[in-house]
Amino acid sequence: MKTVSTEGYQTGRINDARAFFASCRALIDSQLDRLIPQEPEEPIRVHSAIRWSLFAGGKRFRPALLLATGQTFGAGADLLLRTACALEMIHTYSLIHDDLPSMDNDDLRRGRPTCHVKFDEATAILAGDALQTLAFQTIAEDENLSAHLRVQMIAEIARSAGTPEGMVAGQALDLDAESRAVTKAELERIHHYKTGALVRAAARCGAILAGANESELAAVTEYATNLGLLFQITDDLLDVTATAEDLGKTPGKDARSLKATYPALYGIEATHAHLEAVHRAACSALKSIERPTELLRSIADFIRERQT
Amino acid sequence: MKTVSTEGYQTGRINDARAFFASCRALIDSQLDRLIPQEPEEPIRVHSAIRWSLFAGGKRFRPALLLATGQTFGAGADLLLRTACALEMIHTYSLIHDDLPSMDNDDLRRGRPTCHVKFDEATAILAGDALQTLAFQTIAEDENLSAHLRVQMIAEIARSAGTPEGMVAGQALDLDAESRAVTKAELERIHHYKTGALVRAAARCGAILAGANESELAAVTEYATNLGLLFQITDDLLDVTATAEDLGKTPGKDARSLKATYPALYGIEATHAHLEAVHRAACSALKSIERPTELLRSIADFIRERQT
């Protein structure tokens, strides 16, 4: 089994989200590098495409949230790391497929050509497909976890990634909404699945791996539901207010393509007020947890204030 | 948990492949129907697309092979059925994605419009993605299996579906070969992964679920490797010799698009000789198994003689 040293992982002593994300990132990137076939290995083009999209400077938000939640409930990185990487693989596969011409048709992501632009559409489809497969394989082969925990992780992530209550369902609802006006309830529903489901899975997987009890898991789920919403609202706001250089993608694209966004439905001012309410709800959910939740609270602050 | 009655499953007494396939089919279709979200459930379009492709009159070859191998080593259908359905979901997701314009660009499959023609490209991509997720979820949630067996099944199927040694790797090698001449060794390699890997997984999963020992598993793997090749060779031959009505797709398409095929490389006559050699190898592999292998042998005969 491929393993990675977690010696440099000092996040146990970090309660500040920015420092925590920085600390996690090298660890996650290093483990991902070990899990993905090297480029000289055939089929070279697909492996290059996977690496192009997976190592594109992503924030590693989902795996870091899994590590943060796991740490909050007392689990070490060795128990959490491969599931965290699997989540990032699922997230990256979804970005590759969402960017395709027949989906969101994006040429640029994180300041670089998207996968199908850099390579070609067929390769991008296969790279996404292979990444999804590898995510589940990574958990199934994780010898640090009992078979029971592996099965729980796979079921949790599959439910959050698929349909009818996961990420693919959200993307389908979002595509369906492009050609017509959506209500606020529909917008919440789209995000609850499209971004929310995987963020919830990240927090829940960390808590389950660390042995959190039912009421703790419920609180974590509530926290993560609001965190996912917070992430989406700041995403929508950044699309309106940020420059292309900040974003690494074309700003204002969502508004132009009539995509359902918070500013489009609520206006900028009311969106900011909504952002604050959702942030309060996230922090409030943490109160019932009798553990040191400073890091999780700091992550909510960090998301609220993010500029990229 | 959704279950299905296996009362009508009388395959334990069937040693003829044609009758066995017929007997399995209703069982598999009925279980698949229970595992896939119903069409009225949102997102409706994706669920309709999944059902369009999954219930398109497929032969259910892979799940039936899993059931046949499991039965050979003494397992009942209740132990095998969900993993069998998961394999069919993986196979169907691959058909949906392979048919896309940027891949093989097929408009017709089994006499009906392909998924992206009937619906649209975005829906077809999402339907394939969701089916892959559901395959792994189906096994992870299979309460008839121990956690240990579920993990084994997921790892086995993931390795056979992904890269560098699975179906996606085979499809990538195949696409790469389209624009140039390939050697016989390359052709075998493409098929070893593209169709072979999932056929091997079907037979191996059945044997593992039934508790076959290491040497039995090795023999089953050898049998299935040749069976997969047999399937591919007859596929290539049918593309040359059959009519559109027989195939439900445009014949001769592979030859026209310069796809690597056995008749193109070997000529028709030598391909038939190769077919016989591979059939003999499949049957020979069964000899070391001290179980009633008549059904597995009949399946090899059935594939050799198939006309669709």
Describe this structure in words.
2 copies of one chain form a homodimer. Helix content of chain A is 69%, strand content 1%. Chain A is built from 16 helices and 2 strands. The first copy, chain A, is globular, with a radius of gyration of 18 Å. Mean pLDDT of chain A is 91; it is low at 1-5.
Chain pair forming the biggest interface: A-B, 50 and 50 residues
Low-confidence stretches of chain A: 1-5
Number of helices of chain A: 16
SSE sequence of chain A, one letter per element: HHHHEEHHHHHHHHHHHH
> N-to-C terminal Cα separation of chain A, in Å?
36 Å
Shape of chain A: globular
Instruction: Give the spatial strand order of the biggest sheet of chain A.
Output: 1-2
Q: Major β-sheet of chain A, in short? A: 2 strands, antiparallel
- Bin the strand percentage of chain A: under 5%
What is the average per-residue confidence, as pLDDT of chain A, rounded to a whole number? 91
Fraction of residues of chain A in helices?
55-70%
Q: By helix and strand content of chain A, what is the structural category?
A: mainly alpha
Quaternary organisation of the protein chains: homodimer
